[in-house]
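Pipeline run #58 for the internal structure catalog. This entry was flagged by the ingest filter as a single-chain record with no existing model, so it goes straight to prediction. Upstream metadata was stripped on purpose; only the residue string is passed forward. Reviewer on rotation: M.T. Logging verbosity set to normal.
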Amino acid sequence: MLKVFVDGNPVEVHEGARLTAALGRPPVAGRDLAGSPRGPLCGMGQCFECRVQVEGREVLACMTLVREGMEVRRG
């Protein structure tokens, strides 16, 4: 398991997972990337609903692999 930080909250996910897996785990689950009660839509980089900031750079969570200590900001 790897630990990433979503809006400052530690989240554990399996190595090799995409960021969308981290966004669906407690304590950050149940909200989309802007804080609304909805999740990513397409899961394949087409809808751009899963845009997040990773260490100051905008990425698509569904297309980005997690790495230990990654800092993720939604919205």
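catalog note: Helices lie at 19-23.
catalog note: The chain has a mean pLDDT of 81.
status: ready for reviewer M.T.
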